[in-house]
Amino acid sequence: METASGINGANTDLTPARAVSEARLARLATGLGLGDRTGECLKAFRAMTESWGTATAAELPESDVSSDGSPVEFAVGLEDDAAVQFAVEALAPGDSPADRVDAARATMARLVRRFGTDQRRWTQVADLFLPEKPATAHVAMFGAEVRSSGPVQFKVWFYPGVGGPEQAAELCRQGLAAVGLGEAWPAVVAHMPRGERLDPPVLFSLDLSADRAARVKLYFRHHASNADRLAELMAPYPGFAATPVREFCELMAAAAAADLTAQPPVTCLSFTGERPAAVGAATVYLPMWTYAPHDEAVRRRMHRALAAGGRPLEPYEQALRDVAGRPLAAGRGLHNYIAWRPGRDRPRFKAYFSPELRHIDPAARYAPDGLS
């Protein structure tokens, strides 16, 4: 397997970051059985990475997409219908937050021009989330999902902290109202029981589609948390029960009490225009890069979780083979997150992978001031 890491895991590769990522994306799409759809994956990926396509990883500023600062993340749903998802941050070598606003707007214009991507809801919220002078280093990520048939599905994630952390929740409220989902706000408030500092909204996502079933998703980071607290938070949502949530956390974090303070878990609430006030779906995301000694340990835990959930191992194993650029026991940064939510008969899993363009042992991230 190729590697982009040198001494102490630092990146020393002079290959453009896009080229390294493209090679893994092509393997991933082919390995998942997408066949001739691999070309569609690469076409979308090139459009989304045009602002930094010729730069090496060392030339790029640190990104928020993957745990090591890589500007790319891959994701695979571990279900029957093969699909590959990838996310990319809009940035450029030597840029500033204001430059990233320009890069985000240019990326969206490119997707509209090349793919006919629907921009109606983007237009409704872009001025809220893309100010001239952002208060955060990161402003927008773009995503694409490719299945065995149908058009490429695009999405965008905005950062509510662009107006300052104290304005993040209010910006989410305004964003929901702008896209006709103001009735969802009480559900959002209920999902922050400890307030905006400990349960802050950190991403506001739009499916870039005119379909009435297109989703708006809000992601929350939960500081000073553990399995019991997470189970209590998720209890109101359909299908969730305290015991399965705790068991998933305890298995993947490998701790009897599933103390999740080292790296905060993330949850997501999804809303659609079909039922504006109701949570359409809720999901738990466990960060894995600080809860295991290396990725081989994560792999063993995933085997147990998939087996317990009645899911086959091969899609996950295939994805690992296609995205790993090193032996799994050599580092712990390949797995970004593992997502879990109950299904009608079996839980649903999605694995999120870093291309490790910068290094292979990322440190914990996202601790707010005054919290470890």
What does it look like?
Helix content is 31%, strand content 18%. The chain has 372 residues and is α+β, with helices and mostly antiparallel strands. It has a domain at 1-158. The protein has a 10-stranded antiparallel beta barrel, surrounded by 8 helices. Strand 9 (335-341) and strand 10 form a beta hairpin. The protein starts with 16 loop residues before the first helix and ends in a 19-residue tail after the last strand.
Please tally the helical runs, counting DSSP H or I stretches of 4 or more residues.
10
Distance between the termini: 36 Å
User: Would you report the number of β strands?
Assistant: 10
Q: Report the uncertain regions.
A: 1-10
Q: Which shape, going by the Cα principal axes? A: globular
Spatial sequence of strands, sheet with the most strands: 1-2-3-4-5-6-7-8-9-10
Question: Helices and strands in order, then pairings?
Answer:
Blueprint: H1 17-31, H2 38-48, E1 72-77, E2 83-89, H3 97-115, H4 120-129, E3 140-147, E4 153-158, H5 168-178, H6 185-190, E5 201-207, E6 215-221, H7 227-234, H8 242-253, E7 266-272, E8 281-287, H9 295-308, H10 314-323, E9 335-341, E10 348-353
Antiparallel strand pairs: 1-2, 1-10, 2-3, 3-4, 4-5, 5-6, 6-7, 7-8, 8-9, 9-10
Quick structural gist:
With 372 residues, the protein is of the alpha+beta class. The protein is built from 10 helices and 10 strands.
